[in-house]
Design goal:
Layout lengths: L12 E7 L7 H11 L15 E6 L2 H8 L5 E6 L7 H9 L3 H4 L29 E5 L3 H5 L15 H10 L7 E4 L8 H6 L3 E6 L2 H4 L19 H7 L6 E6 L13 E6 L10 E3 L19 E3 L2 H15 E14 L14 E10 L4 E10 L10 H4 L3 H4 L5 H37 L1
Parallel strand pairs: 5-6, 5-8, 6-7, 8-11
Antiparallel strand pairs: 1-2, 1-3, 3-4, 9-10, 11-13, 12-13
Length: about 425
């Protein structure tokens, strides 16, 4: 039942949340983060597994509307007047609902409509349950901010839906300062700016920062003069939130020491479509005939284990207490355990969600919150951590990724060869019969 909203009431109300049937693992952490952001209790969410329906206890309608003005994982939210396994049980439940809450919508001149949603079955008209619709989620953001329509993109520009989920996991709010140390084409800055945060970042690739070089779109050879990160923010009317992006190496922080950022949101390179690089000096190079002593390469390989340890140390030092780090961690699924997720004494793990990449690889969306001030000794905590050797296993992710890909291609080729042999045998047999 879709009815006009009313002012918030003092008592806690039950609300029925209709969730989208995609990115299912990301749904509970996003809703919990938004409840926490707006002062709600993150423990009042009932777990319904893969069901698209979820019941929340929310203290006021204003908080419910704030949640729905941010979420991209939910479609609609309804004030729940009653529920039951049969019509009689539903009727009894509705009759117990406070009459003073229902009276404004039961007047002779009131209008309403019926919205039907079902999961894993088809409902008859008699089985339809009426609910009060108070707000819709922000699913349209996925389309309006689609990467396909974006002015400036790269090989690894983040999907719009996942970008907004990351911003919600980070509890980004107006006037926050948000930083991305591996900014790329700035896809993660856009949703943060949409939510009113000021955004900045660093990127080691000069051409990417300045929008130069070869284009990544089909049928376009070179990037245009106005293809850059600032133009992406301008496209959505968000340029006023764009501070700047610096050409800089994420392994060598350039900031004045101390808490600075309200959130750090990033998608580090995995070495698949984008290489992992950092700047180096001659002392870090093994001298060979190819690279004589007088030659200093500009960039060196940046191992994944070092990327994540540096990222956690950086976040522990430069986040404000209560600020969040949200990042993607690639994993080789046959060897994955929770122990391989990097830890830090200043950061508390909030959520860990999986997105499948292939049958043997995936990436985990890791959300952490800073819980104590950074001390110099904390940057060496990983040396005392018995799990540190497990973190180094991330360094071979690229090899494992392509190893699994090669094996899959080989299996497919063997299968095709087997089908062809069967076809040839059938043709030969037919000729013999003739």
């Amino acid at each position: 039942m879709a009815l006009p909203g009313r002012s918030g009431a003092a008592a806690v109300c039950k609300y029925l949340l209709l969730l989208a049937q995609e990115n299912c693992e990301f749904r509970p952490p996003e809703i919990s983060s938004l409840l926490s952001l707006y002062g709600g209790n993150i423990n009042n969410q009932e777990d319904h597994g893969t069901s698209p329906f979820c019941v929340l206890n929310i203290p006021c309608e204003d908080l419910a509307r704030k949640i729905m003005n941010r979420t991209v994982c939910a479609k609609s939210l309804f004030e729940l007047w009653g529920n039951g396994k049969c019509l009689d049980e539903l009727k009894q439940s509705v009759q117990k609902y406070p009459l003073e809450r229902m009276v404004p919508y039961l007047q002779p001149n009131s209008t309403y409509k019926i919205c039907i949603h079902s999961f894993n079955k088809t409902l008859t008209q008699k089985e339809k349950i009426e609910k009060i619709d108070i707000a819709d989620g922000q699913r349209e953001l996925i389309n309006s901010y689609s990467v396909k329509k974006r002015h400036f993109i790269g090989n690894t520009s983040m999907d719009a839906g996942l970008s907004f989920i990351m911003a919600n996991h980070a509890k980004v709010k107006p006037n926050d300062l948000v930083f991305d140390p591996f900014v790329g084409t700035g896809g993660l800055l856009v949703p943060c700016a949409h939510f009113g945060a000021y955004v900045c970042g660093t990127e080691i690739d000069y051409n990417t920062v300045h929008g130069r070089g070869k284009a990544t779109r089909m049928n376009q050879k070179w990037r245009g003069p106005d293809e850059n990160i600032r133009a992406n923010l301008r496209q959505y009317g968000l340029e006023k939130y764009y501070l700047d992006v610096l050409v800089s190496d994420a392994s060598k922080p350039i900031w004045r020491r101390g808490p600075l950022f309200d959130a750090i949101i990033t998608d580090p390179p995995y070495g698949i479509r984008e290489s992992t690089r950092k700047t180096g000096t001659q002392k870090e190079i093994i001298k060979t005939d190819q690279f004589p002593e007088s030659h200093v390469p500009v960039q060196l390989t940046y191992h994944l284990s070092d990327i994540f340890l540096d990222l956690l140390n950086f976040s522990a030092e430069f986040l404000v207490v209560g600020g969040r780090l949200v990042y993607w961690l690639p994993v080789y699924r046959p060897e994955y355990t929770e122990e391989v997720v990097p830890r830090h004494p200043c950061l508390k793990l909030i959520s860990n969600c999986e997105q499948m990449l292939s049958s043997h690889t995936s990436r985990r969306l890791i959300t952490m919150e800073k819980v104590k001030e950074f001390e110099d000794k904390d940057q060496y905590a990983h040396l005392e951590d018995g799990h540190y050797l497990l973190y180094q296993g991330h360094n071979s992710f690229r090899e494992k990724y392509f190893s699994g890909l090669t094996k899959r291609i080989a299996r497919e080729e063997r299968a095709r060869a087997g089908e062809q042999n069967c076809s040839d045998f059938g043709s030969t047999q037919e000729q013999q019969d003739v």
